[in-house]
Amino acid sequence: MLLYEQFKDEAEFRENFVKPLLNRLGYYGVSEQHGTQEFGKDFVFSELHRLGGMRHYAAQVKHEKKIKQGKSVDDLLSQVRQAFAKPFKRSDSPRECHVSAVYVFNSGEITEGAKEYLLSGLGREHYGDNVHFLDGERLEALNEWATLQSDANARARLLGLRSALRFIIATLDEYQLEGKPGFQPMFIQGIELYLSEPVNCDDQLLVSLFKLWQQLQGVEVMRAILFKHPGDTIRLEKYAPNLKHFAQDTRTLAIEICQKIDAAIEKMKPLGGS
Length: 274
Hints:
The chain is of the alpha/beta class and about 270 residues long. Helix content is about 55%, strand content about 15%. The protein contains seven helices and nine strands, in the order H-E-E-E-E-H-E-E-E-E-H-E-H-H-H-H. It has helices at about 10-25, 70-85, 110-125, 135-180, 190-195, 205-230, 235-265; strands at about 30, 45-50, 55-60, 65, 90, 95, 100-105, 110, 130-135. A five-stranded mixed sheet has the order 1-2-3-7-9, sandwiched between helices. Strand 2 (about 45-50) and strand 3 form a beta hairpin. Helix 4 packs antiparallel against helix 7 (about 235-265) and helix 6 runs antiparallel to helix 7.
């Protein structure tokens, strides 16, 4: 199915394809401007360039089966001119910003004649090298690439989380069997790092991880009590059974979460082994 055929109208194409794509590509401040005051900008988005400044872009989004020479191209030419001429404001800054380049996104085809006509007109106004055309075929290829890059990063993060969970489970095995902790603490930081910037948006998984984190904090408190006076056999006899029981419940939850992580990694269909 062609990209054009996957969306019923331009609004759906903007919301379900263009905006997620720009976010996956890592652009900063992706903001939809579509409306009576858009001035040629359906979206504005930015990035930091290598010299430390901010570069701004605009996207003019179309949902047409074929853009060819005629009124639609004349309208598009006017919109691109407006995008360059009219500044905009980012939500996090009161300063006016000017775009450095304009991207024309069309879910369908953009004919070579239309591109040449637009670039000829804009070239005379010194805009030509900063106007880019992305038709349905190129957008699908770009979306596939962005998805692969996003999945690779997400998979790496999930693999790291799984390694932390496996270490925690192994440590809890010792607590459960012996009823007392070893000298090495559990790697709770691995969970904290993931929760600070999660890559899997499964709400149930996040809730389970928060619950596990809370329970691990309790295990560490008990561990600290036992190590405060390592030679105190009365204290050990008092708290060791509690630690053993708590470790058992926490271990069960950690195993359940680890299984969910395994399933999430499997869905990403990695190219190599795990």
